[in-house]
What does this fold into?
Amino acid sequence: MQFQIECNSEKSSQVCLICRQTFQMLAARLIVCNDDGDGYGEICHQCTAKGGNWVQGQLQEFKHNIVLA
It folds into this structure.
């Protein structure tokens, strides 16, 4: 998995890939992508604020669930 950070000019709502809560996009967006650059979804600011190790653990679980599906 890879992270992609992009500037955001849209004022839209998204659903967080980790906590599944709807959140308002701010000036930057953090997108989780596969190794080919295809986006899985975005991570909210509250989950991002919990730190890289926490996010990594959550995404490992997410990746495990994708493989099983």
